[in-house]
Structures are given as structure tokens and as C-alpha cells.
Amino acid sequence: MVALEALAMVMMLHLLGGATTGISAASKAPAIDFQQLNVRETIASTKIHPSDARGYRESLAKDDESGGEGKWKLKLLHRDAISSGNSSNHGHGHRLNARLKRDIKRVASLTRSLTGGGAAGVSYGVQDFGSEVVSGMEQGSGEYFVRIGVGSPPRNQYMVIDSGSDIVWVQCEPCNLCYRQSDPVFNPADSASFAGVACSSTVCDRLENAGCHAGHCRYEVSYGDGSYTKGTLALETISFGGTVVRDVAIGCGHRNRGMFVGAAGLLGLGGGSMSFVGQLGGQTGGAFSYCLVSRGTASYGSLIFGRATMPVGAAWVPLLRNPRAPSFYYVGLSGLGVGGLRVPVSEDVFRLSEEGNGGVVMDTGTAVTRLPSVAYEALRDSFIAGTLGLPRASGVSIFDTCYDLFGFEMVRVPTVSFYFSGGPILTLPARNFLIPVDEVGTFCFAFAPSPADLSIIGNIQQEGIQISFDGANGFAGFGPNTC
Question: Family assignment (predicted)?
């Protein structure tokens, strides 16, 4: 069990060498904390070689290795790391623009989906396990991907991981309407463990939009951005390396459309009973951990399930529950910091109301952190004040604060921090908030205003940080390890 005394600690996560963080004592001229951003190295990380992509794919094809202590680890890569695109129309600027368009739709989807309910989870007899995850750059998707086996014998498939939704589903034959995926479409007739779910089943009753056709339970999920999946519900075996989980309720999608190109389907990791985490129930205690590898690195992140994933020494913050959105992981945020100084924003801006409005969600499917306008503008203005010596550039897409760093090798920028309720302070590495938007030196401040009161901490800000969710005890953890 993790020692919850860490809740009382103010923990600074120094994720970039040389960065100093913290709040200075009151004085006439408070000191500002800065850190270094390696411009040349960060730009270089946006350029992907086809040989790099081949190496990642070959590694992913190998069986996953045990992570020890009953855990199984799946590979996690940033989407840029496995991109094989080296033509002009697949450059970093093109990929980022497409990613931001998807991101806008994702945020609109989340802000429109604050309804729903859930029931008690189903328990499966499994040990702690996990898997490595890859992101979907090469596949044409902005999400992170995991490689798992579906059926008996297992058919390896790329699956999008999504902490903001619940249903586990794959595209299935016969495919009446399917998007392009990297692997052959799953054929239930080839699996000895595939079993359809009857309309009268209690599992079918837990679906929000359950239907019935010829006695078979039918599901339908719309993601608010025009993406959807429709098909039949089934019980199937899911494999993670040497670990086998039987009787997982999955959607067998015969009509699917949306932003899932490349992946075979989606692995819902939300807080509801139908998510993969919810179905594992008491065996894992709703506990899982992930580390989203930073773009441009040749290493793997991870997705690991089970109580053994909970790290000692993490900074823990309470998870908040919103009955209107049980799938979302809400955390308490009390404020923001720039240069080690609090930004003048009221804590009420981030509060989750009794009616279920507002609040702060951790989401793997959103790229750029969104903040209510009053909070975003205060954060942005404080950051601009700390970067007056850097040449400005025109805004790009959703970013209104950009810099022309062409010709620079290193720059000093003020630190940016999240102040969580209960004390912990998460100070981000510079590459998690000042990102390249092209290959010629244009960098933008990677935050944006939210279209509603909802705040979303996106995956760019989460990169390189070990993040854990302890559903049984109601806590989210940050650190102490990095990817």
C-alpha cells in the first residue's frame, strides 16, 4: 500500500536537468525560476527516419516481457517515434496540424459528454499485468496505441488507449463499413473463445445504448466528434504477452467510422464499469499506471495494470467523482505557476461544482491542455512576461503565443507548474509546454483556452511523467519515475 503521507508533501518533480522550481519568499523583486530548452535537439526529434520506424515495428512484434512482481508491460511510444513519413506532405507541420484538428474535435466531444452512469464492475481472476503502448503517428491517428492479442488463438491488434471512455471494441468481420487499419480485421469465426452476449444478459443491461437483434445484444457508441462504432457485444479473450484475460466484454464493430485510422479499435480505460479497468474489478482495484514517452526518444513508455503498479514516493492527489461523467478522472487543481510564482487565478476557476460542471480532467486522448479563458490568459500573460527577450512569431492553429527560435541552440524559459489540491506541485519540463510546430524553429506555448468551464490536462503535458490511478482508494499519483 502506498504511504498516503505523501499527500502532505509539496513535491517538486524536476524533470529537466538544471531546472529549479518552487515559490520564492515574498520580497520586492521575487526571483523567477528558469530552465533550459534545447531548441536544436527538440527540432531534431520531430524528424523521423523510415529506418527508425522499422526498428520500432520489429520491436513491437516481439512478445512483451515480464515487468516483475506479477506485472506485464506493454510498449508505449509517442506517435512521432514510429512515423515512417518522410515526404513533404508528411512533415512535422503537416502532422501537427492534423493532430490539432483532431484535438479540437476531441475537446468538443468531452465537453458534450458529461452524462451517463455505471454499475459495479465484473471481477476476473488475473494477476497484476501490463503492456507496452505505442502512439499512432504512423497509423494516422493522434492517440497512443497498445499492441494486444484478441481471441483464441490471439490475433495481434493495435488498440487506441483512452482514459476518457469505457467500451472496449475492435472492428469485426463481416465489416459493412470499416476504416483502414494496419492489421487484418478480426474475424470472430476464427476464434474459439468468441461468445455472443444475449439481450437478457446483465452485461448487456450495463450498456448505455443497448439494442437487441435476433437475441443478440447490440451496442452503439458515438464519440461526439462524428466518430462511432456499432455492432454486437461479445465475451472474448484478451492477451498481453503471456497474460491471458478471459471473458472480457468487447464490442465487435461491424460499422465503424472516425479518427481511429490504423488501430483495430479502442481499449477504454475510463472509470466506468464497462471499461477494461472496470471489468477487471477487485483483482486490480482499479489500479493502473502509464508513462507516455516523450516525442523523439528511442525508448518505450508503458501501460501496467494492478496494485503492484502503485509507486512508493509518488505525489498523490485525490481523485474526484462526477456522477454526470463517471468515466472521467478528475483531479483537484488549486492554481498555476510560472517561474515558481503563483499565477493570479482563483481556485474556484478549477472547482468541480455539485452540479457536475467545471473541474479538471486527466485525459490521454487530448493532446493540448485546455484551461478556462480567465486561467489560460493569466497563465499565458505571465509566461510572455518571462520571455520578453525571445523573438515572437505569428500564432499557429489553436496557439496564440509562438516564438521564432530559428538559429537558437538553447533558450532560457520560465518554469510552468500545476498546483494540486493538498500541496503537490508538478513542474513540467520545458519540452512539455514549448513545442515545435514546424522544422524551421517556430515554437508555441502548448496551452489553449477551453470552450467551457471544463479544464483538461492533455498528453503533451503528461509526457515523460509516470502517472498512476488508484481507483480503489481514490487517488492519482505523479512520479517519482520518468519514462
Answer: Belongs to the peptidase A1 family.
CA 95, CA 81: separation in Å to the nearest integer? 12
Q: What pLDDT is stored for residue 478 in this prediction?
A: 92
Q: Residue 347 — pLDDT band, cuts 50, 70, 90?
A: very high
Specify whether 348 is catalytic. no
Query: Taking a C-beta distance cutoff of 8 angstroms, is the pair 190, 151 a contact?
Result: yes
Question: Which of 162, 166, 438, 470 is labelled catalytic?
Answer: 162
- List the domain boundaries for the chain: 4-482
Residue 144 confidence class, pLDDT cut points 50, 70, 90: confident
Q: For the chain, give the longest Cα–Cα distance.
A: 76
In order of 170, 346, 435, the CA distances from 454 in angstroms are: 30, 15, 23
Marked catalytic residue, from 103, 128, 166, 363: 363
Helices (H), 366-475: 373-385, 459-462
Summarize the confidence of residues 105-112 as an average pLDDT: 74
What is the pLDDT averaged over residues 120-140? 44
Closest of 18, 34, 31 to residue 390, by C-alpha: 34
Exposure string over 276-287, b if 16+ CB within 10 A, otherwise e: bbbbbbebbbbb
What is the rounded CA–CA span in Å between residue 303 and residue 146?
8
User: Is 381 noted as a catalytic residue in this protein?
Assistant: no
Dihedral (CA of 356, 359, 364, 366) sign = positive
